[in-house]
Design brief:
alpha/beta, Guanine Nucleotide Dissociation Inhibitor, domain 1, Polyamine Oxidase, Chain A, domain 2, seven-stranded mixed β-sheet, five-stranded parallel β-sheet, 21% strand, binds flavin-adenine dinucleotide
């Protein structure tokens, strides 16, 4: 394949390498900003880690792992809405927690109390905590919001910090651990306390809508791999799948001149490298350090279960004090039949010794403990999917290692959830990175390409409580 600059098209040609959310977001901004865009994705379908597979039982697509965003993910919501795909996400204000004894807590932030007081009903609703524990939790959230972290390699982990400020072990195990591990995809004894602070401030305290769960109602493979790509093409972008970029070319001045895909060469005025850090390190070893001792990844496991009937009577629930962390009913997707559900386990390193049968038995046993309908249901099919490099491990000091979009080569910019966005490795982080990269390319090619959209606004009371 060769994409030549067309003589009658004077728009700058930007090649985006990688069709994950970062590359898709960059392409959208660049096309909107007046660039000619060619997006090259090595797999058969765009979407990257936000991926789906063929449902072996009911047909159609099932997400390799259920993804959720939150109300604070302004760029995720904006990207989907801007592409006219707002019908493919649902907002749930209620979080269900299921305590160790099986008590259900319906936790809904207030829609009318000013932030951060809107959290009062959510905290008060946690039936598995005593009044004293609820008060400790509220105090812990406030202290964390007002904490200052050095973000250095010797900064405390979230667990060290929580113990240091005297959070009760039950509150750590039954709130902090599931919430932080689900939000950051990494274990509470490894994450930087600054990352935990971001979860609490941006995801809970900052705004009445911050903690609203934003759930895709279509398989990600359709939402991003098909509908978003179709929208991009309608905006004039060229999207090529099954095209692995094998090299980047530059001239004597160090300016990028194009990329190669095997034997083919594609000329470019600028390149956005939107691939995971190891792939970026292979393609641009002078710009990206990608050794294992540099950036580390954290695994996430999804346990897919097909029962002979519906066993989950809630749309989703956080199971605290168990191996299973989140269960999703899975009836969002028209392809799955009524008996499908999915259990997500973040930071699943060494989960039950890597024994898949044991994982299924454990998870099914836990569902039978808390969902009466599961007790007599027959399990028809099970599949355990672990992505060992699901997210960047946000350990102390990692932010200093995450590269900015702008590199030493003027017309090559980086994107990806692992780059320096200030956000953890999430869909929101990936989309922000793509938009930041697009704006940086705009500055190089002389076009006003817009970047990220603003965070949810903070009231004076929030600023007073949060301290900055
Ligand atoms: C199991 C799991 C659960 C998750 N849960 C959540 C969640 O609930 N909420 C949330 O917000 N986030 C979640 N995430 C994280 C989220 O999926 C990622 O942060 C985001 O999708 C990363 O997007 P990206 O574009 O930066 O990278 P990627 O998605 O990795 O995209 C990079 C793309 O580059 C392509 N590529 C690589 N090399 C080449 C090459 N040489 N040429 C061309 N193309 C190439 C790859 O095929 C890939 O498509 C989860 C991730 C996983 C794996």
């Amino acid at each position: 394949m060769t994409v030549n600059r067309s003589p009658e098209d004077s728009r700058p040609h930007v090649v985006v390498v990688g069709g994950g959310l970062a590359g898709l977001a960059a392409s959208a901004r660049l096309a909107d900003g007046g660039c000619r865009v060619t997006l090259l994705e090595s797999r058969r379908r765009c979407g990257g880690r936000a991926a789906s597979f063929e449902d072996p039982v009911a047909g159609g697509l099932v997400d390799a792992c259920q993804h959720v965003a939150m109300g604070c993910c302004t760029n995720f919501i904006d990207l989907v809405s801007h592409a006219g795909l707002g019908d493919a996400i649902r907002r749930d204000r209620t979080l269900w927690f299921i305590g160790p004894e099986g008590h259900r807590s319906r936790c809904t932030p207030s829609a009318w109390l000013p932030a951060p007081l809107h959290l009062a009903p959510l905290l008060l609703g946690m039936r598995h905590f005593s009044w004293r524990e609820k008060a400790s939790l509220a105090w812990g959230m406030l202290r964390l919001a007002r904490s200052v972290s050095s973000q250095q390699a010797d900064a405390p982990t979230a667990l060290e910090w929580l113990r240091h400020v005297g959070q009760p072990e039950r509150v750590i195990t039954l709130f902090w651990q599931p919430v932080i591990e689900s939000a950051l995809g990494e274990s509470i004894d490894l994450v930087d306390v600054a990352a935990a602070r971001k979860v609490v401030v941006d995801g809970f305290l900052a705004h009445r809508d911050a903690a609203t769960l934003v759930v895709p109602t279509e398989p990600l493979g359709r939402l991003f791999g098909e509908r978003f790509v179709e929208w991009l093409r309608q905006r004039g972008a060229t999207v090529e799948t099954s095209q692995a970029v094998t090299g980047i070319e530059w001239d004597r001045e160090g300016r990028i001149t194009g990329v190669t895909c095997g034997e083919s060469r594609i000329a470019a005025d600028a390149v956005v490298l939107a691939v995971p850090w190891k792939a970026a390190g292979r393609l641009a070893p002078d710009l990206v350090v990608s050794g294992d001792d540099h950036l580390a990844a954290s695994p996430i496991t999804a346990v897919h279960l097909w029962f002979d009937r519906q066993v989950i009577d809630l749309p989703h629930a956080v199971l605290v004090g168990r191996v299973s962390q989140w269960v999703f009913r899975g009836d969002e997707h028209d392809a799955t039949d009524g008996g499908y559900c999915q259990v997500v386990i973040s930071a699943s390193r060494g989960l039950l010794g890597g024994d898949r049968r044991a994982v299924v038995d454990q998870v099914v046993g836990e569902l039978r403990d808390v969902f009466p309908a599961a007790q007599h249901a027959v399990l028809r099919e099970a599949k355990v999917v672990t992505d060992p490099t699901a997210v960047l491990s946000v350990r102390p000091g990692v932010d200093a290692l995450r590269p900015a979009a702008v590199t030493a080569r003027p017309n090559l910019v980086l994107a990806g959830d692992w780059t320096a966005t200030g956000w953890p490795s999430t869909m929101e982080g990936a989309i922000r990175s793509g938009r930041m990269a697009a704006a940086a390319v705009g500055a190089v090619v002389g076009l006003p390409v817009p970047g990220v959209v603003a965070d949810l606004p903070r009231t004076p009371l929030v600023r007073l409580v949060v301290g900055r």
